Amino acid sequence: MSSTLWQCRSTSLRFDRGPLVLGIVNVTPDSFSDGGEFFDSSLAVDHALKLIAEGADILDLGGESTRPGSQPVNEAEELRRVLPVVQQLAKSTSVPISVDTSKAIVARACLDAGAVIINDVTGLTGDPAMVEVAARSSAGLIVMHMQGTPATMQAKPQYDDVVRAVADYFAERLHALEAAGISKGAIAFDPGIGFGKTKVHNLQLLGNLQALRASGRPLCIGVSRKGFIGTICNRPPLERIAGSLAVAGLATAENPDLILRVHDVAPTRDVVMVTRTVLEHRTANRETA
Known about the structure:
Layout: E1 5-8, E2 11-14, E3 20-26, H1 41-53, E4 58-62, H2 75-92, E5 97-100, H3 104-113, E6 117-120, H4 130-137, E7 140-144, H5 162-179, E8 187-190, H6 199-206, E9 219-221, H7 227-233, H8 241-254, E10 258-262, H9 265-288
Parallel strand pairs: 3-4, 3-10, 4-5, 5-6, 6-7, 7-8, 9-10
Antiparallel strand pairs: 1-2
C-alpha cells in the first residue's frame, strides 16, 4: 500500500488503491485522436461527466493541441475554449480538475474558476510567469519532459541515454521549483511519452519507470492511443485501446504511484483494479507460504 500523497491545493490525492486515472477532455478542433469531438463546451462538459461516471479520479481539460506538428493558439482563444468548461464542472462535481496549459494567464484563470492542478508540457519553463502562479496557488503540478516544441519535437529526437536524460531533467526541475517556493508534495512528473521521443525512446522509458522515481514523486504516464502503439500494432488512433491498456497494466504492476492519463477511462479502471487485485493475492500467497 502506497503512502505517497499528491497535494493539489486543499485536495490530497492518495495512491493507496493504486494508480489514479486522469480522464482527457480535449476542447480542441485538432487533437490527434478526438479533435473536434468535444470542441463545443456543452459537449465537453457532458463528456467530462461521462468520464467521471466511468471512474475518472481527475479530469484534464485542454484547449490547445500539443500533437506532433501542432501550432500554438493565443491566450484569448485558449481561454475561450477551456474556461467555460472548468467553470461548469467546478459547479457540478467535486472531482479534481487539471488544466493542460503552458500559459500562466490560462492557468491562473482556471485555478480561480476551480481547477486544482496545472499540467504543463513545458515543465513550467514555457512561460516565465507560470512558476509564480504555481507557487502562489499551491496547485498540484504535472511537470513534463519534452525535447523541442510540439511543432518540432518529432523532427529528429536524439539522446545519448534517454532514461538518464529524463531522470536528470526531473532532478533539475525539482530543485528549481522547490527553490522557487513550490512544495515537493505538489509535484508529479511526466516523462513525456511521444514528446520528442522515437518509438525506441518511448519503450526505454516505459521499461525503466523505477529509474525515473528517484525523487519519490508520482509519475504521470500518457500513452493513450499514441503513435508508437499504432506502429507496434499497425492500428489507427481509435483502434489503439488494447495497446494502451497493455501499457497501463504493465506500468501498474511495477508502480502504484502513477497517474494514468487516458481517453478510455472505464477499461483503464478495470485494468488497474484487476492488476492490483492479482498483485495483492500474489503477495498474500508469499506471506502464507
